[in-house]
Amino acid sequence: MDRYCVFGNPIAHSKSPEIHAAFAAQTGQELTYEKRLAPVDGFAAAVQAFIAEGGLGANVTVPFKLDAVKVAQALTIRARAAGAVNTLHFTEDGIVGDNTDGAGLVADIVGNAGVPITGKRVLLLGAGGAARGVVLPILEHRPAQLVIANRTVATAEALAEQFAALGGEGVVSACGYGDIEGAFDIVINATSASLSAELPPVSPSVFAPGALALDMMYGASPTVFLQFAGQHGARLRDGLGMLVEQAAEAFSLWRGVHPATAGVLQSLRAKL
C-alpha cells in the first residue's frame, strides 16, 4: 500500500486521515494515511524516517510549515510565494514542497460558496503565515482590489509590496485595522484571533451588503468574527471547506486525480 501521513504537534485533532480515506475510497486509490506526531525540534528527522519506511508524501500542519520549506529540495511557485509548505511530495528526484492552502481557500470561495473573486473588493485580515499563503491564489482570480490589514502595519506593507507587481497598479495595498476604507465583497479572517475568541478590531462598515465573511478557523459553532459579521448582514463561511479543498489539491498532486469534495465536506460538517 502507498503510504502518506500528516505531520504536526499536536496532531491528535487532525481530520486529514478521514478526508484522505474518503478521497481514496471515492477514486479507487489504494493507500494508507496516518497522523504522525513529530518532535518540535525533530521535524526533518521525522520526515526522513517516514521516507525510509516507504512514505510517498506528507501534509504538514502547525508548527512545521516553515521547517518544511527547509526540508524541501525544490519548491513550487505557490510555496515560494507563501514562504511556507503544507504538502511534501517524495519523488525520485527529491523532496518537492508545495502549498495548497491558498488554492483550497479559493476553491472553497468560488466553487463551494459560489462567490466569484474576479472584479471584487477583497479584505484580508492578518499578514502572518496563513495570510501569506493565500495572496497569490487570490490575485490569480483578478480581484478589483486586495487590501491586507494587520495590527503591525509594516508586516502588511511588506506582504503587499511582495505581490504588488503581480496584482497590477493599485490593486494590492496594506493598512492598519483603523485605516480600512470602504466596504468589501469578501472579508477573510486569516488572524489567529478566533483561537482565543477575540475579534480583529474592524468596523462593521467593512462588510458590503451581502458580503461573504470567511474565517479560516472552524468548529461546531461560529467564531466570534463570524458572529460579528452575521450581525452586520454578511454571508458566513468557516474554514472547514478550505481544509477539505486544500486536502483535495494535495491528493491530486500525489495521485494525479482530483477527488470530488462536496460529499466529504458534507460528511465532516455533520460530525462537528
From TrEMBL:
CDD domains: NAD_bind_Shikimate_DH. Transmembrane segments: none annotated. It comes from the Bacteria. Pathway: Metabolic intermediate biosynthesis; chorismate biosynthesis; chorismate from D-erythrose 4-phosphate and phosphoenolpyruvate: step 4/7. It is an enzyme of class 1 (oxidoreductase). Shikimate binds at residues 14-16, 61, 86, 101, 218, 246. It catalyses: shikimate + NADP(+) = 3-dehydroshikimate + NADPH + H(+). One of its GO terms (cellular component) is cytosol. GO terms for molecular function: NADP binding; shikimate 3-dehydrogenase (NADP+) activity. InterPro entries: Aminoacid_DH-like_N_sf (IPR046346), NAD(P)-bd_dom_sf (IPR036291), SDH_C (IPR041121), Shikimate_DH (IPR011342), Shikimate_DH-bd_N (IPR013708), Shikimate_DH_fam (IPR022893), Shikm_DH/Glu-tRNA_Rdtase (IPR006151). NADP(+) binds at residues 126-130, 216, 239. Residues 6-88 form the Shikimate dehydrogenase substrate binding N-terminal domain. GO terms for biological process: amino acid biosynthetic process; aromatic amino acid family biosynthetic process; chorismate biosynthetic process; shikimate metabolic process. Pfam families: SDH_C, Shikimate_DH, Shikimate_dh_N. Keywords: Amino-acid biosynthesis, Aromatic amino acid biosynthesis, NADP, Oxidoreductase. HAMAP family: Shikimate_DH_AroE (MF_00222). Homodimer. This is Shikimate dehydrogenase (NADP(+)). It comes from Duganella vulcania. The gene is aroE.
